[in-house]
């Protein structure tokens, strides 16, 4: 509990000096190159990371990449990236790195593992993590990076695969204010909104809140579209009505869960790609852990967590989380 209390303090702290486990560390003043097109490293080339790295290349950056998937690496090689064999190899070549990884253990391994970033990181490097993880892990990574004279910032994203591909993501950034301008220069090539939320961990705090709201709204959108269609409304007409009325939300107008209503979204591609249900379960688990620690009531967040966990057990784990619509259809057929 003492550690969680420290975490809460750190998330609220706005200065560049942080207290962790009885020690003090200061934000590193970078000695990176001043030119905006300095080489960038990118680790984690999945549904989100791959398009993000490609946007850096499209915007004129030399990008060095690594991923455990050979196919993902080859895809980026064809796009013009320099592919290397490990996170350590990335860190040995560049002094600005973006990571986009699935969960806490992946981030810890990529940064602190035997072939991790910190084994070869250059002093003064800027390390930007866009994974969605526990804020406490971000705080710990920042401490580990500081021991290597490198700056760690958490910068999770919102917008989904379409925004990742079009460069329209929103970045929620936590870290030293003095380093935010340098991070923003890089992130603006992959997103249209880059928001400094405060100290290390506050970006993740904002993302946990965002994804809990998103999970709840997607279930609501799925229930509403399902009921309206059963009432005889044509799906696209119902979407147009809802999206020009007080029910309008991102889950309806940008990422509609009903197949055929919008082009290019996962629901129109058999719920392939996008944000997997199992990852939404992971994010809702983070939210519930925070809610329990802070004694913050989240009845709808808790229910959404349960629904997506059931979906995973019913075969939807690897499908996009908007498959909640199909899950409701399946439940109807089973009754």
UniProtKB/TrEMBL annotation:
GO terms for biological process: L-valine catabolic process. The keyword Methyltransferase does not apply. Keywords: Branched-chain amino acid catabolism, Mitochondrion, NAD, Oxidoreductase, Transit peptide. One of its GO terms (cellular component) is mitochondrion. It is found in: Mitochondrion. The keyword Isomerase does not apply. It catalyses: 3-hydroxy-2-methylpropanoate + NAD(+) = 2-methyl-3-oxopropanoate + NADH + H(+). Belongs to the HIBADH-related family. 3-hydroxyisobutyrate dehydrogenase subfamily. Residues 201-326 form the 3-hydroxyisobutyrate dehydrogenase-like NAD-binding domain. It comes from the Eukaryota. It is an enzyme of class 1 (oxidoreductase). Gene3D superfamilies: N-(1-d-carboxylethyl)-l-norvaline Dehydrogenase, domain 2 (1.10.1040.10), NAD(P)-binding Rossmann-like Domain (3.40.50.720). GO terms for molecular function: 3-hydroxyisobutyrate dehydrogenase activity; NAD binding; NADP binding. Its EC number is 1.1.1.31. This is 3-hydroxyisobutyrate dehydrogenase. Residues 40-198 form the 6-phosphogluconate dehydrogenase NADP-binding domain. InterPro entries: 3-OH-isobutyrate_DH-rel_CS, 6-PGluconate_DH-like_C_sf, 6PGD_dom2, 6PGDH_NADP-bd, HIBADH, HIBADH-like_NADP-bd, HIBADH-related, NAD(P)-bd_dom_sf. The gene is LOC106171708. Pathway: Amino-acid degradation; L-valine degradation. The active site is at residue 207.
């Amino acid at each position: 509990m003492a550690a969680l209390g420290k975490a809460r303090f750190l998330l609220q702290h706005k200065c560049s000096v942080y207290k962790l486990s009885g020690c003090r560390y200061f934000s590193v003043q970078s000695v990176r190159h001043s030119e905006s097109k300095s080489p960038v490293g990118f680790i984690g080339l999945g549904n989100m990371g791959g398009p993000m790295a490609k946007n850096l290349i499209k915007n004129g950056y030399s990008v060095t990449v690594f991923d455990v998937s050979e196919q993902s690496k080859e895809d980026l090689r064809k796009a013009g990236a320099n592919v290397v064999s490990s996170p350590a190899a990335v860190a040995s070549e560049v002094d600005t790195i973006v990571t986009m990884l699935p969960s806490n253990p992946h981030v810890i391994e990529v940064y602190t593992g035997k072939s991790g970033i910190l084994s070869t990181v250059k002093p003064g490097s800027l390390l930007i993590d866009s994974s969605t993880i526990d804020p406490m892990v971000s705080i710990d990574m920042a401490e580990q990076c500081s021991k290597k004279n490198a700056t760690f910032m958490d910068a999770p994203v919102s917008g989904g695969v379409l925004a990742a591909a079009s460069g329209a993501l929103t970045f929620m950034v936590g870290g030293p204010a003095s380093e935010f301008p340098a991070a923003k220069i890089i992130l603006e090539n992959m997103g249209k909104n880059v928001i400094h939320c405060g100290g290390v961990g506050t970006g993740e705090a904002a993302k946990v809140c965002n994804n809990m709201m998103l999970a709840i709204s997607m279930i609501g959108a799925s229930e509403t579209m399902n009921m309206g269609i059963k009432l005889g409304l044509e799906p696209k007409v119902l979407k147009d009505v809802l999206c020009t009325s007080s029910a309008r939300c991102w889950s309806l107008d940008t990422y509609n869960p009903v197949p055929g209503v919008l082009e290019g979204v996962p629901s129109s591609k058999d719920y392939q790609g996008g944000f997997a249900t199992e990852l939404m379960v992971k994010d809702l688990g983070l939210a519930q852990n925070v809610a329990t620690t802070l004694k913050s009531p989240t009845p709808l967040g808790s229910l959404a967590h349960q629904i997506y966990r059931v979906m995973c057990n019913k075969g939807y784990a690897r499908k996009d989380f908007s498959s909640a619509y199909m899950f409701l259809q399946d439940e109807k057929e089973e009754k």
